[in-house]
């Protein structure tokens, strides 16, 4: 590695994780509150994490009973790498193509592969934050319950370190290719957004088909049970056809220091390194093709033609206009679009995937859902309601104004217009998310018309106070000083805070429901929810209108 | 029309006193020029008038309406053009104008008439359908001006409006300002350009280090200064206090 690259990496790590400013803040005792909030948020996730890890233990026991522990490791590798891959797409996209420093880096005499290389390193570090909490429990449970020896632990360290490599390489390569071929003059943002959705849908579809096909073929074969007893890695190898690296990882660990084990470890690490080399070559060839012109926009059709003002100038209701402006800005800013729609679409998609591909292991869950329709209905309402915070639109609505905030503050806009107009886009997104979720549920169990109506109406109205919780936080501490829209959405602590408070709100409601449901039945609980929703909406709305009024004056 | 009394503002918890107890009045039908060296407190003062920065002390009153007590009423009658035209660059010019128009509740016919008129003067009607991020700095400024003028304000406030405009456009803007005053509206703007202030303004205030050090018509300023030829000399004499 040459000196340029090392310094690039250092700078990028510093920027990405804000090391300098963190050190400065700690020394100066600044920003203690936001840091404490992050710490709290992380801590609050801890109990549920423990719960999941415990559940994993019994998952392991189940596999052990049929002598297929290696499959347990495979599930671990598979989930960790899959998550890295999914996050990878988003990270890579924003880091390689939309980050702040690119306009400064590109004109410098730096090779494209070095830019990519340095950014890749800090992505790896970010990805450990997601991969470690997933893979570690699997490795530790397998190691301790199986009384594995020292080689197991040593190999596992290697495997854990290299785990994010391959998925991140895959997402980097795919995104680079994607960006090159969608870098079309004109409606670039629209083309990219649509093709991204198609792309994801395609991947999921292929995944589903493959999975169905493999599970079917394993279980259909007559001597499945016999084979299962004979071959301790049967499940693993059959599932491994789909994505071999996870299998290699699992075999490397479970076979330990044997020819097969070492060979698989070699494959596991080697595939990542080869992929990395490939990515660097590709970066040299196509990275700039996708990047250049990112900043240039389409000054298009109108040039030279006089505007026909009477056909385009139209009067509208201020509330609707405010909502329209918000929606336009969201649609025209890819980071906003992906994050908000992503937060809402992911749950239904995960639901469908896990139901369809999960096969046998999800039967108990399916059964439980089928048994209690009440819980299904209440749960779906909660899910759609939670989209109100998950879409991050409420918690960033004022932050997204950024340097344009002066417009909002100098126009004669009634605070009520601000509040309602900014709530509507979020609600509109819940309608989409709600319909998708209902679609997802249909994969498990068909719903009746009145159930669908109850779920949609209550879910969407429940998302109103939750969106407003986000807006309340955002107006109290708006983040207006950003230069890249990413910062307003992804690096905005308000999103996290609103999720924490929103969760509290929903857990409270769910607990009430849980207490009342057995004795009073579904409709009493639904009635109670309606009351909670209406009261909290009125309360938060009033609070919000006042806050907008005063904060719009007090800001600097 | 606009009355400012005892207005003060400091930054960084009182460390920097940007505006220090200033009072002035802009009359109906008057163009008022606000002059001062860099960092004198012009932008700070303007922000306190338009509702962007809350004064530490003092009052801003527009025809009996306290701007900070009844912001909605005041804002309906004020238009503001900042020194840096940061606007929604993902919207098209038309979308931006429609947004502003709806917030002020401007009727469609009025909207069409005004926008046709001003965008023709500023020569931006060809680009109104384009996305704002494709505009040059000056084009953005002209769009902000068009939007501000569309609302037909009683008080038009501009921060360094001539910076970044080509000679033709800045001439047109000056014409527009004159026309507005003839209709009984008022204009308040800050500038560095002495000639503009000298020729255009009915009255002038010179601010330095947050304090108003001279105020009045050109005639009155000449009388009070030693160097009498031009506003530039008066300005240099007054602000050279080192
Ligand atoms: N956000 C801020 N934080 C701290 N100090 C500020 C801030 N904005 C302005 N100041 C200070 O207030 C004083 C007045 O600034 P202001 O922007 O009002 O000057 P100005 O007259 O508009 O100058 P220019 O001609 O350069 O635009 C300056 O000393 C400046 O440093
Ligand atoms: Mg200024």
Q: How many DSSP E strands of chain A? A: 0
Report the CATH topology name of chain B: Rossmann fold
Residues in helices of chain A, as a percent range: over 70%
> Helix- and strand-based class of chain A?
mainly alpha
Q: What oligomeric assembly is this protein in?
A: heterodimer
Q: Please provide the count of β strands of chain B.
A: 10
Ligands, deduplicated: adenosine-5'-triphosphate, magnesium ion
Alpha-beta classification of chain B: alpha/beta
Mind summarizing the main beta sheet of chain B? 6 strands, mixed
Tell me the greatest interface: A-B, 43 and 47 residues
Q: How many helices of chain A does DSSP assign? A: 24
CATH superfamily of chain B, called what? P-loop containing nucleotide triphosphate hydrolases
CATH architecture label of chain B: 3-Layer(aba) Sandwich
Average pLDDT of chain B works out at 90
Number of helices of chain B: 9
Order of helices and strands of chain B: EEEHEEHEHHHEHEHEEHH
- If you compute it from the alpha carbons, what radius of gyration of chain A comes out, rounded to the nearest whole angstrom? 26 Å
Q: If you had to describe this structure to a student in words, what would you say it looks like?
A:
The complex is a heterodimer of chains A (556) and B (242). Chain A is mainly alpha-helical and 556 residues long. Chain A folds into two domains: 3-291, no CATH class; 318-554, no CATH class. Chain A has helices spanning 3-17, 19-28, 32-65, 69-97, 102-105, 112-145, 150-162, 165-181, 188-220, 224-230, 234-240, 244-255, 259-291, 309-312, 318-332, 334-358, 363-371, 373-390, 405-410, 415-442, 449-476, 485-489, 493-520, 522-554. In chain A, helix 6 packs antiparallel against helix 13, helix 7 packs antiparallel against helix 12 (244-255) and helix 20 packs antiparallel against helix 24. The model of chain A is unreliable at 297-302 (pLDDT under 50). Chain B is 38% helix and 25% strand. Chain B starts with a strand and ends with a helix. At the A-B interface, helix 14, helix 15, helix 19 and helix 24 of A face helix 2, helix 3 and helix 4 of B. The complex binds adenosine-5'-triphosphate and magnesium ion. Magnesium ion (MG) is lined by residues 42-43, 83, 159 of chain B.
